[in-house]
Predict the 3D structure of the following.
Amino acid sequence: AGAALFLASDAASFVNGHVLTVDGGMSVQM
C-alpha cells in the first residue's frame, strides 16, 4: 500500500516509465 500511496502523491512526479517491483521482499529472499 505504501508504494501505491507514493505513486499517487506529488513526490512521485519524477517517476517516469519505471517498473516498480512490489512483492513484499520476496525477490530479495530468492
